Amino acid sequence: MRCAETVSMNDTNAAIDMIKQIRKQASHVGDGIQRLACILADGLEARLSGTGSAIYRQLAAKRISATDYLKAYHLGMSITPIMRVAYHFANKNILSIAGNAPKIHIVDFGISFGFQWPSLIQFLAKMKYEPPRIRITGVDLPQPGFHPAERIIETGKRLEDYAREFEVPFEYHGIASQWESICIEDLCINDDEVLIVNSMFNLSQLRSSPSLEKNKSRNELFNLIRAIKPKVFIQGIFNFSFSPFFVPRFRMVLLEYFRFFDMLDTLVPRNSNQRFLIETEFFRPPIINQIACEGSDWVVTPETYKKCHTRNLEIGFEQLPVDPSIVKECSEILRNDYDERYFIEEDCNWFLQGWKGSIIYAVSLWKPQVE
I need a surface site. Which of 137, 188, 202, 271 has the fewest CB within 10 A? Predict the structure, then answer.
């Protein structure tokens, strides 16, 4: 914290000395706080030298293979219930809301590698009656380089193969684009389908701040969702919020991300390659962005669920209640398969998950208000 304060005052020599002292005590193979300290020191050094934006762009441009991503995902699913339970909660609500509809269209903002959808395909395959036809429109940001849509296309092929294996009628359409630039025509909405909009833990990529201009991209996306009138909009978020001012923002980054590093340190051996992959490929880029970037280059801006709740109401959404039976199923998964320090609770119809008393993830259901 003293180093962050020194960096904020542009006291270069004193900050460099402190970073050297931090690096002597930090370690990429140490305990949780030592590993986090390595990344925090990188962020402070990048901010001090003015190279934060360039470093973040380089990290963001790095392509992680589906194989490596799957290894990290499997580790995450084995030690933490967060993604597994969140996907179960979302998918069971999709099935409940769709009912016996013969056709379902899911628009997934931030589909990435599409790991949410195999479990839904399995649920559909186990139905007593003929499974409905499912169409997924996967939306994600373009990848840097010569093949911006490569990952989203490969995701579609894997899901098509999976659905074919389980004999579930399936169709996929991928869109690699800035989300706020998408129009209704791009989504190919059909009146004979139950329309679901899904976005799990990816809306922090859209700027939201007191500035109207910086809030524009998130508002445009939400206006699009309202315009297509889905049966439900399933929203999953990281329960973080960071100050626009550097020193308090640095303090919150330290505290919030320590939860993840503590979780890994408690449950995963320190020599695990998958753990190192998670720490460097998934946590390092957003930490660097939040510490070393400002203005339009500061792009990772999550919100707390309470702030998100207020904004959703203001922009014209109505919240749907949480189904107690689905919450009970999620609680059983947690109790049977995971460490007792994880917890589930509800607040204002938000489905919350956390670790050691701190809320980390939140999921809720929304629909456009009737005008």
Answer: 271
| Of 77, 39, 35, 32, the residue nearest 55 (C-alpha) | 39
Same domain, 251 and 276: yes
This prediction has a pTM of: 0.92
Residue 233 and residue 85 share a domain: yes
List Cβ neighbours of 47 (8 Å cut-off, separation of 6 or more).
7, 246, 291, 292
User: What is d(CA 245, CA 241) in angstroms, rounded to the nearest whole number?
Assistant: 12
Q: Compute the distance between CA of residue 359 and CA of residue 259 in angstroms, rounded to an integer.
A: 10
Among residues 269, 297, 325, the one where a domain terminates is 297
Ordered alpha helix ranges (H), the chain: 2-8, 12-25, 32-49, 52-61, 66-79, 82-98, 117-125, 150-165, 184-187, 216-228, 246-267, 273-277, 284-292, 305-315, 324-337
Same domain, 48 and 101: no
- Distances in whole angstroms, Cα of residue 250 to Cα of each of 51, 246, 260, 269, 354: 17, 6, 16, 28, 21
Which pLDDT score, from 0 to 100, does residue 216 have? Answer: 57
Same domain, 37 and 117: no
Spatial separation of the C-alpha atoms in residues 101 and 104, rounded to whole Å:
7
Of 271, 297, 323, the residue at which a domain comes to its end is: 297
Query: Phi and psi at residue 301, in whole multiples of 5°?
Result: -130, 80
CA dihedral 307, 310, 312, 316 (to 10 degrees): -160
Which pair of tokens denotes residue 201?
Answer: 């833990």
- Domain of 346, in residue numbers: 66-239+302-368
Ranking 59-73, 174-188, 251-265 by mean pLDDT, the lowest is: 59-73
Number of compact structural domains in the chain:
2
